[in-house]
Amino acid sequence: MNDTLQRFLFENLGIRGELVRLDASWQAVLERQDYPPVVRTRLGELMAASVLLSATLKFDGSMTLQIRGDGPIGMMVVECTSARTLRGLAHWEGEPDEASLNGQFGDAQLIITIDQKKSGRDRYQGIVPLEGDSFAEAIEGYLYRSEQLPTRLWLTADSDSAAGLLLQDLPGQYSEEDAWNRVSTLAETVTEPELLDLEQGEVIRRLFHEEDVRVFESEPVSFRCSCSRERVENALRGLGHDEVTDIIRTEGEVAVNCEFCNRRYAYDAVDVERLFAGPEQPEVSTTRH
């Protein structure tokens, strides 16, 4: 299994590049839900895109890419942290088979959220229409409009792996006028099998062997869910004592299932009373999950 992010830089051209390959982390997502082929492909592309995009940003926390629309695929979300851990899921109806992005998601929005609670910085959220024929085009357009950064993306996924390539122009650092066009043209020759099957160093050599490229140390990427009992309990407290005890009376317990990892959190009547007890109350041990 090869789950890595590989950064590289074109010396003296002001262009950076990134390659990502997801194997075990992609399989961890697929093991938790049986997605139709079209949904699976789009989710894999969005996971690859989230890792690539996170590596272009400076943040300490999590970045979420979310798509919400009124089409057969109603929602898709991927969370990637600054530690290169990620998780993802999708909601759909029927068997989506439309080839176009609009046919799959309908009238949809691309929502990018950066959460840096640990560092005390404000939460950032950008919302734009989902436009273009692919996720790559949609994200390229978002970056150009919001950051004025020319960016190119190539994304692919199958039942075994998800992968992607990113190039980004760093304005004001050109030493050659046509560098961006030349490097982009070289990258356009990459094929999906190359991204999915070749070692990342081989992809860089194949595409850019005539360029002066500095390759940095690769970074591991892994699947990890950020759900926790603390988060679930905070959500239950937000519902209020009366509503939670009503659920206990009708259902016998309060059960919360994480859609990302299928982890189950269960609370009985004793747990609920402990949850809403004052700080002076002794803590009651939690139930199994």
TrEMBL record:
<keyword id="KW-1015">Disulfide bond</keyword>
<keyword id="KW-0963">Cytoplasm</keyword>
<feature type="disulfide bond" description="Redox-active">
    <location>
        <begin position="258"/>
        <end position="261"/>
    </location>
</feature>
<dbReference type="GO" id="GO:0042026">
    <property type="term" value="P:protein refolding"/>
</dbReference>
<protein>
    <recommendedName>
        <fullName>33 kDa chaperonin</fullName>
    </recommendedName>
</protein>
<dbReference type="Pfam" id="PF01430">
    <property type="entry name" value="HSP33"/>
</dbReference>
<comment type="similarity">
    <text>Belongs to the HSP33 family.</text>
</comment>
<dbReference type="InterPro" id="IPR016154">
    <property type="entry name" value="Heat_shock_Hsp33_C"/>
</dbReference>
<dbReference type="InterPro" id="IPR016153">
    <property type="entry name" value="Heat_shock_Hsp33_N"/>
</dbReference>
<keyword id="KW-0862">Zinc</keyword>
<keyword id="KW-0143">Chaperone</keyword>
<dbReference type="InterPro" id="IPR023212">
    <property type="entry name" value="Hsp33_helix_hairpin_bin_dom_sf"/>
</dbReference>
<dbReference type="GO" id="GO:0005737">
    <property type="term" value="C:cytoplasm"/>
</dbReference>
<dbReference type="InterPro" id="IPR000397">
    <property type="entry name" value="Heat_shock_Hsp33"/>
</dbReference>
<feature type="disulfide bond" description="Redox-active">
    <location>
        <begin position="225"/>
        <end position="227"/>
    </location>
</feature>
<comment type="function">
    <text>Redox regulated molecular chaperone. Protects both thermally unfolding and oxidatively damaged proteins from irreversible aggregation. Plays an important role in the bacterial defense system toward oxidative stress.</text>
</comment>
<dbReference type="GO" id="GO:0044183">
    <property type="term" value="F:protein folding chaperone"/>
</dbReference>
<dbReference type="GO" id="GO:0051082">
    <property type="term" value="F:unfolded protein binding"/>
</dbReference>
<keyword id="KW-0676">Redox-active center</keyword>
